[in-house]
Design brief:
Elements: H1 8-18, H2 23-33, H3 36-53, H4 58-65, H5 69-81, H6 85-93, H7 98-103
Length: about 100
C-alpha cells in the first residue's frame, strides 16, 4: 500500500467508516463526506470491477455504467496488479475473485 495515503487523517476516516452499522448509516455519512459526483464515481468503479470479474467486455461495461474506457482500464489494472482490495471484498460478498477463477 502506498505510504502517501497512510496519514492520521485517513486513519480517522477509516475508523469512522468502520463504525457505520448499516446501509442507511452509510448513506447518511457518505452524503455528508462526499459530493454526489465523488460517491457516484466510487460506486461506478466498484460496478466496473464487478463486471470485469464477470468477464464483461469494455463495450458492455461502458454501455451499462457510462464509464470511460480509461476508467475501465484503470480499474482493470487495479484488479490485476493492485493490492487485491477488490477481491477481498468480492470474496466476502460472493463475487468470484481472480484466485477462485485460477482454481477452476
Amino acid at each position: 500500500m502506498s505510504k502517501k495515503i497512510r496519514t492520521a487523517a485517513v486513519d480517522h476516516l477509516f475508523e469512522a467508516i468502520l463504525n457505520l452499522k448499516d446501509a442507511e448509516e452509510c448513506y447518511l455519512f457518505f452524503e455528508d463526506v462526499c459530493t454526489v459526483n465523488e460517491l457516484l464515481s466510487l460506486s461506478q468503479r466498484f460496478e466496473v470491477a464487478r463486471m470485469l470479474r464477470e468477464h464483461k467486455t469494455y463495450l458492455e461495461i461502458a454501455e451499462k455504467t457510462g464509464a470511460s474506457t480509461a476508467t475501465i482500464s484503470r480499474v482493470n489494472r487495479s484488479l490485476n496488479y493492485g493490492n487485491d482490495g477488490y477481491d477481498m471484498i468480492f470474496s466476502r460478498i460472493g463475487i468470484p475473485t481472480k484466485a477462485e477463477e485460477v482454481e477452476s
